[in-house]
């Protein structure tokens, strides 16, 4: 129990705001995961605590049967056919039009939140392994700004510089480092930072690819931007088919020895769409 509490506390501290980053870093590892987590909680509350789908069924159906149909259609997936098109008679053709991403929206959001947070966690773990706490150095440097006496401020700055150089000396197998070796280590550290930033950008691109794969969007390269463009151009979902609110669901009803396939139409979807 103590181990889990310590691990959770370390995870929270790894994602807390610090002074060794900038606005873009905070937007990536802090604010974006918070917004995604809030959206995940809202959608999960509606899906698992409310009624995510309401079906328009045969008026002769009982209430228990209606609830069963709604649960079945929500789990089994639904499919979308435009109003101006006829419903295909072939069951395979209907399966090709299935929409199966509504149920996975909370999991996709929480996965994206983790993907935005993991680079920051890895970066801080690597920084901690280096033996030099950049956060403490930055905090100490910020504290020197409130020192009024110039001589005391200069002593504090010299102490920080000495701490940084001593740390480089401890990590070097050759004892004291000449200036050229110090510059080489600083360049290596800069390249390491550039590589991590490049991995962050690559992870952002992979997030878009993963999102397109989950939405099964072969028509658009960047699904979200294209959906936003369709909305700005006044193209409704009834034409584009993006996140349809009215879909169809096939439900088999057995009457004694006969099997009757009926198509029920879910009339309402309750989702927060992004």
From TrEMBL:
Keyword Ion transport found: yes
Q: Where in the cell is it found?
A: Cell junction, Gap junction; Cell membrane
InterPro entries in UniProt: Innexin
Major location (coarse): other
Instruction: Offer one Pfam family short name for this entry.
Output: Innexin
| Entry GO terms, CC | gap junction; plasma membrane
Residues of the signal sequence? none
Its domain of life reads Eukaryota
Drop me one GO molecular function for this one.
gap junction channel activity
Q: Which UniProt keywords apply?
A: Cell junction, Cell membrane, Gap junction, Ion channel, Ion transport, Membrane, Transmembrane, Transmembrane helix, Transport
Q: Which GO terms describe its biological process?
A: monoatomic ion transmembrane transport
Topological category with respect to the lipid bilayer:
Multi-pass membrane protein
What role is this protein assigned?
Structural component of the gap junctions.
Give the UniProt family note: Belongs to the pannexin family.
UniProt protein name: Innexin
Organism expressing this protein natively? Heligmosomoides polygyrus (Parasitic roundworm)
Q: Which gene encodes it?
A: inx
